[in-house]
Design goal:
Blueprint: H1 13-27, E1 32-37, H2 43-54, E2 59-64, H3 71-81, H4 91-107, E3 112-117, H5 124-133, E4 143-149, H6 151-157, H7 163-166, E5 169-175, H8 180-193, H9 206-214, H10 218-231, H11 241-252, E6 274-277, E7 290-293, H12 298-308, H13 364-374, H14 384-397, E8 407-411, E9 425-429, H15 447-459
Parallel strand pairs: 1-4, 1-5, 2-3, 3-4
Antiparallel strand pairs: 6-7, 8-9
Helix pairs in contact: 1-2, 3-4, 9-11, 10-11, 13-14, 14-15
């Protein structure tokens, strides 16, 4: 079967040493256990076997890292595995429930064993959460963690941010493919576990063929032998090395390894044309849809010649530009119904305040320099009275004949009840000479008038 079953456990040297080391690590509370191996080498089977051997003395939570992506899911998975309620509880209470269960187990001399399969798919923040569980104060260490994954897990634990967990690793088990001798022993133990005998099912040399094809990966060994038995089931004969090669081609869709020849099969497609079809979703059906080679040998021979030719220089040849869809904004539809928020103080110009009273002055350019020099940080902003004094003082010191001034200052007095705009000052450009618009009237203004103006602005008077 695709999923591992402990009754078919074969105590090969590497996996059996890892099993014994992890069990010792748990029972002696040595620290965190680590199992690293390529796919198909028996990591999941090892965790299942470890669960069977320690479940009488500990609560065991066997988790799959690929199905856990949040802290809430982590606590729920642990509680569900040990038979505790986990539905309809918020994250904080879930973690408290896990901690309380750990303390209860520690009081009885037991503990919680957390086994994580596919741990390389677990986010590092969740691995850190598991490490923090080992810091729960109990008379004896009551949390025992075993992580199993591919070589990527070993790389993750080598990062500097995972140093605290890496220092707690007491046992490391590295699972490898079986060698030739172990592969032959594994084949016979699996057949014996099914109540049969190897020599009554397979011809001599079939075991060597299995090893050459699978290179000793237990999962591939299981699949290959099962497929070979299916091929000969109706013919009621023994499996031959040729059947092993044929089965390999069936399940892997790859050529048989060197030295193995699959059983020849007749083909009725010698005189038929060969068609290569492409999915033509782009370009509205205007692109290349089907390439068809005739029944003759010349197109096929030409295709083989091109495939076997030396690879061309990737930097030579024509430039190719790929264009997809139209030039419109691809995100336009996503935000078509969104409400647009406009900042109330963003202005397009002084016309936004055309409904308010304006005070114009030809000395606006010098006043603008004074206002700009005051600064706009809220913490350092002077009071309105200080603004008025600064402007008035500058006005007294400035040259009165500012005929070449190109801008004026427009002071907007806010309406009563709209105090948010009470301190707004808008600097607007004068109408250039020669403009068709009528020139604004110019009045003589004294420094005391400015003081009075800013005082009224500060009080919000009209």
């Amino acid at each position: 079967m695709a999923s591992p079953r402990t009754q078919f456990y074969h105590p090969a040297a590497v996996i059996d040493a890892a099993l014994k080391g992890l069990e010792r690590c748990i029972r002696r509370a040595e620290g965190v256990g680590l199992v690293v191996g390529q796919p198909g080498t028996g990591k999941s089977l090892l965790l299942l076997k470890l669960t069977e051997q320690v479940r009488d003395d500990f609560d065991v939570a066997l988790l799959t890292g690929a199905s856990i992506c949040t802290r809430r899911a982590l606590w729920q998975s642990i509680l569900a595995a040990i038979g505790e309620p986990y539905k309809g509880i918020d994250e904080t209470d879930l973690r408290i429930a896990v901690v309380e269960r750990i303390r209860g187990l520690a009081a009885t001399g037991s503990g919680l064993v957390i086994l994580v399969d596919e741990a390389h798919t677990l986010p590092t923040r969740l691995i850190e959460e598991l490490r923090l569980l080992t810091n729960i104060p109990t008379p004896m260490p009551a949390v025992h963690i075993v992580l199993a994954g591919t070589l990527r897990l070993d790389e993750m634990l080598g990062a500097s941010r995972m140093a605290s967990l890496a220092q707690r690793i007491a046992v490391r088990g590295y699972l490898e493919s079986l060698d030739h001798t172990e592969t032959l022993a594994y084949l016979r133990s699996q057949v014996a576990a099914a109540g049969l005998t190897w020599d009554k099912l397979f011809e001599a040399g079939s075991d060597d063929a299995v090893y050459r094809a699978t290179e000793g990966v237990p999962r591939l060994v299981n699949q290959l032998c099962d497929q070979a038995l299916v091929l000969v089931a109706e013919s009621n004969r023994l499996v031959t090395p040729a059947d092993i090669a044929t089965a390999w081609c069936e399940i892997q869709r790859l050529p048989a390894p060197a030295g193995l020849e699959p059983i020849a099969t007749t083909s009725t497609r010698d005189d038929e044309s060969t068609t290569v079809a492409f999915d033509d979703d782009f370009g509205g059906g205007n692109g290349l849809g089907v390439i068809e080679f005739g029944a003759g040998d010349e197109p096929v021979a030409e295709l083989h010649r091109l495939v076997e030719a030396e690879p061309a220089d990737p930097w030579s040849g024509p430039d190719v530009e790929l264009v997809f869809g139209s030039s419109s904004d691809p995100f336009e539809e996503l935000f078509a119904d969104e409400e647009r928020v406009v900042e109330r103080y963003v202005m397009n110009g002084p016309d936004d305040f055309h409904g308010r009273r304006h005070v114009n002055s030809r000395e606006g350019q010098s006043m603008g320099r004074v206002l700009a020099s005051i600064g706009c940080d809220t913490a350092d902003r002077p009071t309105m009275a200080q603004h008025a004094e600064a402007v008035a003082t500058h006005h007294e010191e400035s040259v009165t004949s500012s005929d070449d001034a190109e801008s004026s200052v427009s002071m907007t007095i806010a309406d009563e009840g709209d105090m948010d705009d009470a301190d707004m000052v808008v600097i607007e450009e004068d109408v250039h000479e020669g403009s068709s618009e009528a020139a604004s009237p110019v009045f003589s203004v004294r420094p005391s008038d400015y003081r009075s103006l800013f005082t009224r602005l500060r009080r919000g008077d009209r």
